[in-house]
Amino acid sequence: MKSPRPDLLPLLVAALVLLALHPASAAYWNGHKSLRDLDGDGIPNVVDPDIDNDGIPNALDKNIDGGIAKTGPFAGKHVGDHIDNDNPEEEDADDDGLADDSLAEKDIDADGKLDDDSLEDDIDGDGRKDDSTAERDTDGDGRDDDAADEDDIDGDGLDDDDDQEDDIDGDNKKDDVDDDIDGDGKANDDSTELDTDGDGLTNDDPADKDDDGDSISDRNDDDDDNNGTKDIDDSGHHPEDGEQELQHDLDLLAAPDGSSARVTLKYLATGAGSFVMDVRDATAGSYDLVVGGVVRGTVAVEQLSNHTRGTLTFKTTASGSGSLLLNFPVAEQLVELRRDATVYYSGTVPALPPPSTDGEIGEAQVHLAKGPNVPANADAVAVMEFGIDGPIQIELEVTKIAIGTYDVSIGESVRGTITIAAGSNGTLGLLKFTKADDAGTVLMDFPVAGQTISITQGGTTFFTGQLAEAPTPP
Q1: Which of 124, 165, 203, 385 has the highest CB neighbour number within 10 Å of its CB?
Q2: What pLDDT, on the 0 to 100 scale, is given for residue 472?
């Protein structure tokens, strides 16, 4: 890289100053602590295509902010550090004064493409494409994408389970259409993929309320793991609160011994339902399916090698060939399979079991607004869980503000204190309120739904917001 001509240097600096003052870029420049110039070539790091002047463009340089300068005032000398971009000790790859995991850091590898730009395919500048199966540490912070302590896979400052994070692995594929949401090289539907969204919680962990990290809670998501198969059809679906399922075998009347006709009825928390009639080892032919005295369809029993079988599927929303609309009751109804006037199988389906539940009917996530002078990458989130009678739990998480103790007010009163301490990825504080007064929590015996919430210290307000109202029970 050539050094700027001395007679053009003042013009270059002036142009950079004008650029910095332009309204369109003011927000970007204001986020930087200073206009650092590692190689002393008169071009600030934030716009320098070769920050260390080693002749390797930032986009191709394995150590963006460290190398032997080829030209300029430090020609022949090593400038910067000796830490590669993907080394866990490298916390500011482009030496712009912004930590790589800072919310204000928009271009980790200083290649001129913002991290969330559709053209940015190598966020950490390590030479491995973000969507490559070989890229196991997308943001180059030293933590593997599927590590339990990696809570921001693409290094954009948003936690992977934040409801504003819609591209967890930063590969420019939205999570709801990405076949590998957490970028760990395992497809969402891989049998070994136990943590689809890479949030450190396995999919079957009751604490994981959003398996695929798409900001839609599993209760309200019709494809929890985003594997392309709707939960109502997915044999690997993990049950959630509010779900009902039963199986019932009909009695054999004119049917041959050893044959069977089974009813499977299922309703998910999303409201989706299915009814499957499965007939095995019956005499081949067509049978009318009668539910509650009404013919609802025909089951075709066919010869298959050494046995016969026929199935008929109904769903609350028709979804593909062979699926009929389930818009009639099945539970507590007489179900029969007939040919002509002969009833071959018959039985009354029992009542559905009560919905599985731990008392929860829904949840809400509330991001609190920052007060003046609160760090740009700080965050406060209140996750609320609701039961039939209202809120049953609030979990408050506060990150990246100064270590100390803060008051938490809900409504007009201080209801608890949250302690902010050092964590693995900046400071962190957790506080939980519960109706059950569980150990280590604050008893929630005061109004919560729709109330204001604030986090303060010594008269200074750091965060404010309004808690959600209770949802309508399903």
Answers
A1: 124
A2: 57
